[in-house]
C-alpha cells in the first residue's frame, strides 16, 4: 500500500518542514546560511560517534550539533579569523572527519549516501516520535520568544538598550537551529539541509507582509515541497532528499511570478 | 524659546553616573578619566571632533560597551530610549514601520500612531522600513525611542541630514519631551551652532572631558576655543535663539517626496 509506505516518511518530512519555516526565516534574515551548513556537516560527525559508541542516532547527533553550535558562537566572538572563513574551515573539517570516522567503523555497514542526501523512506515509528517532540519544543520556544528573537534580528544594539539579553537570545536561536538540523539529517541529509531552511523562506518572502506571515508561509511551502518531493520520488523513482529540494526550488521559481506583497 | 524656558529642577538623584571610566580597544585608550552624571529634566549635549570617543561614551552609557575601568551606576529600573544614527534592516525581512515600533514596545496601535505623529511621520506607519529615506528612518527611530516613555533619551547625531528649519523643529520637540516626560536627554553632535542654544549642559569631549557646563560657560572656556578654533560658535557666547515662526520636521532635505514647510 502506498499509504503505509509513505505515511511515516510524510510525517517525518512534515515535522522537519514545519520547523524549518520559522528557523529558515531567521537564517535568511540573519544571513546565517553558512552557519546552518556548518552545523549540518557537524551532524555527520555526530552520527559517526553515535554509531561508534553504540548510541541512539538522534541523541548523538543532537548532542554533537549543540556542542558545535555553542563552540561556533564562542569562536565567532574572536577577531582573528573572519567569521565565514572560520565556518568554512570548521564545516569541511567536520565533514571530512565524519566521513573518515564512518569509513573506519569496523562491523557496521553504514549507508553514507543516506546521511549525505537523506533516507526518508527508512524512518521508523520511533524516529517520528523523536522528530515531532523536537519540532513541538522548537515551535513552542520560538513562539514564546518571538519578539525577543525578532528584536535582535532587526538590531542587536537597540534590543540590548531595550533590555533584551542579546547573548542568551542568540544562543537560544543557535541551539534551536542545531536541534532542527540534527533532526533533519535523516530527511534530506547533511548536504541538502540548508536548502530546506532557505528555499521555502525565500519563496515566502515575496508573499508576506509581516515576519510572522513569512515564517508560517515558509512552513506551509516547505510542507508542499515535502509532499511534492515524495510524490516525485514515488512516481519517477528518484532519490527522496534531492526530490524534495527540487520541489522546493520549483515552488521558489513559481513564487517569483507572484507580485511582491511588501 | 531657549532663552525663555524655565530652568528645570535637578534636585533628584542622577539617572546615570560614570566614575573614573576608561575604555580601551586593544592598545588604544579611547576614553579616560570620565566623570559624568546625567539628570532628569535636562538636555546634555556631547560635542567633540571626529574620533574623540563621543559614540563610545554614549555606548558606555547605553550599556552596549563595557568600560575597561571605572564604575557606571544606573538608577534602578532606568528606562532608556535610543535613537542611533542609522540602522540597516535586511531587505529579506518584511517589516512595516508599525511592526518595527511594536518590537520596541508592545501595546496599543494608538500609542504607536501618537509616537509617529509626534516625530512628524504619522503618514509612514504602514510603509516598509526598507522603503524609508535616511531622514525618515531617523524620525521613525525617534518615535520608537519616545514610545518607551524613557527616563533617558539618547540621540546620536540627530541633526545630521536635517536642514536648519528641521533642526529647529527637532530641538523644539526635544525641549517639549524633556518638560513633559521630565526625562534626561543626551545628544551627540559635532554641529555646534544650534546645539549651543538648545541645550542645558554641554560636555566637550576629546578622549577625556575637556570642559563642561552651561553653553555660555563652555563657549568661554579656553579648552573649548582650542578644540574648535575659529568656529563661529566660539563667538556665540551670548547667542540667543530667535524663534518667531513654526516649522515641522518635514524641513528635512533628503525627504523630497513629502517635502513641505509650514511657514
Task: Tell me about this structure.
The complex is a heterodimer of chains A (262) and B (263). Helices cover 78% and strands 0% of the residues of chain A. Chain A contains 12 helices and no strands. In chain A, helix 1 runs parallel beside helix 6. Chain B is α/β, with parallel strands linked by helices. Chain B is 30% helix and 22% strand. Chain B is built from 8 helices and 9 strands. Classes of the chains: A mainly alpha (262), B alpha/beta (263).
Keywords:
heterodimer, A: mainly alpha, B: 263 residues, 6-stranded mixed β-sheet, 3-stranded antiparallel β-sheet, 9 strands, globular
Find the count of extended strands of chain A (DSSP E, 2+ residues).
Answer: 0
Ends distance of chain A: 45 Å
Query: How large, in whole angstroms, is the Cα Rg of chain A?
Result: 18 Å
Question: H/E element string of chain B?
Answer: EEEHEEHHHEHEHEEHH
Number of DSSP E strands of chain B: 9
* Separate helix tally of chain B: 8
> Radius of gyration of chain B over alpha carbons?
18 Å
Q: In what range is the share of β-strand residues of chain A?
A: under 5%
Strand residue content of chain B: 15-25%
Low-confidence stretches of chain A: none
Biggest sheet layout of chain B: 6 strands, mixed
- Helicity level of chain B, as a percent range? 25-40%
Structural class, from secondary structure content of chain B? alpha/beta
Amino acid at each position: 500500500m502506498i499509504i503505509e509506505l509513505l505515511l511515516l516518511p510524510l510525517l517525518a518530512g512534515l515535522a522537519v518542514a514545519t520547523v524549518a519555516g520559522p528557523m529558515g526565516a531567521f537564517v535568511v534574515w540573519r544571513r546565517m546560511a553558512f552557519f546552518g551548513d556548518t552545523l549540518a556537516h557537524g551532524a555527520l560527525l555526530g552520527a559517526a560517534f553515535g554509531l561508534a559508541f553504540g548510541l541512539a542516532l538522534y541523541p548523538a547527533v543532537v548532542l554533537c550539533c549543540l556542542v558545535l553550535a555553542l563552540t561556533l558562537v564562542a569562536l565567532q566572538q574572536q577577531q582573528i579569523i573572519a567569521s565565514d572563513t572560520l565556518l568554512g574551515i570548521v564545516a569541511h573539517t567536520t565533514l571530512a572527519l565524519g566521513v573518515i570516522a564512518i569509513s573506519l567503523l569496523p562491523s557496521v555497514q553504514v549507508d553514507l549516501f543516506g546521511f549525505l542526501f537523506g533516507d526518508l523512506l527508512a524512518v521508523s515509528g520511533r524516529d517520528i516520535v523523536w522528530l515531532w517532540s523536537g519540532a513541538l519544543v522548537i515551535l513552542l520556544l520560538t513562539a514564546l520568544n518571538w519578539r525577543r528573537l525578532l528584536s535582535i534580528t532587526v538590531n542587536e544594539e537597540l534590543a540590548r538598550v531595550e533590555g533584551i539579553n542579546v547573548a542568551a537570545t542568540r544562543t537560544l536561536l543557535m541551539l534551536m537551529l542545531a536541534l532542527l538540523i540534527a533532526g533533519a539529517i535523516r530527511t534530506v541529509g547533511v548536504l541538502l539541509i540548508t536548502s530546506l531552511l532557505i528555499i521555502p523562506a525565500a519563496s515566502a518572502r515575496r508573499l508576506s507582509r509581516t515576519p510572522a506571515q513569512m515564517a508560517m508561509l515558509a512552513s506551509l511551502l516547505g510542507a508542499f515541497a515535502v509532499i511534492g518531493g515524495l510524490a516525485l520520488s514515488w512516481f519517477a523513482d528518484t532519490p527522496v532528499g534531492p526530490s524534495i529540494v527540487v520541489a522546493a526550488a520549483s515552488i521558489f521559481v513559481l513564487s517569483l511570478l507572484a507580485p511582491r506583497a511588501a | 524659546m531657549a532663552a525663555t524656558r524655565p530652568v528645570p529642577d535637578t534636585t533628584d538623584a542622577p539617572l546615570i553616573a560614570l566614575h573614573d571610566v576608561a575604555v580601551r580597544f586593544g592598545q588604544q585608550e579611547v576614553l579616560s578619566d570620565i566623570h559624568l552624571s546625567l539628570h532628569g529634566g535636562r538636555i546634555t549635549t556631547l560635542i567633540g571632533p571626529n574620533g574623540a570617543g563621543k559614540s563610545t561614551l554614549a555606548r558606555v552609557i547605553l550599556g552596549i560597551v563595557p568600560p575597561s575601568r571605572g564604575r557606571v551606576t544606573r538608577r534602578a529600573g532606568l528606562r532608556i530610549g535610543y535613537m542611533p544614527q542609522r540602522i540597516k534592516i535586511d531587505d529579506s525581512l518584511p517589516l512595516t514601520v508599525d511592526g518595527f515600533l511594536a518590537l520596541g514596545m508592545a501595546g496599543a496601535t494608538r500609542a504607536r500612531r501618537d509616537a509617529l505623529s509626534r516625530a512628524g511621520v504619522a503618514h509612514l506607519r504602514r510603509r516598509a522600513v526598507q522603503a524609508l529615506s535616511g531622514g525618515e528612518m531617523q524620525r521613525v527611530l525617534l518615535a520608537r525611542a519616545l514610545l518607551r516613555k524613557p527616563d533617558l533619551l539618547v540621540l546620536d547625531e540627530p541633526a545630521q541630514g536635517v536642514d536648519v528649519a528641521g533642526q529647529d523643529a527637532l530641538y523644539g520637540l526635544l525641549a517639549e519631551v524633556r518638560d513633559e516626560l521630565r526625562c534626561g536627554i543626551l545628544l551627540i553632535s559635532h554641529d555646534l551652532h544650534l546645539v549651543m542654544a538648545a541645550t542645558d549642559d554641554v560636555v566637550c569631549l576629546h578622549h577625556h572631558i575637556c570642559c563642561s557646563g552651561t553653553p555660555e560657560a563652555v563657549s568661554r572656556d579656553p579648552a573649548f576655543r582650542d578644540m574648535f578654533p575659529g568656529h563661529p560658535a566660539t563667538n556665540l557666547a551670548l547667542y540667543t535663539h530667535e524663534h518667531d515662526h513654526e516649522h515641522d520636521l518635514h524641513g528635512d532635505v533628503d525627504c523630497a517626496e513629502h517635502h513641505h514647510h509650514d511657514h
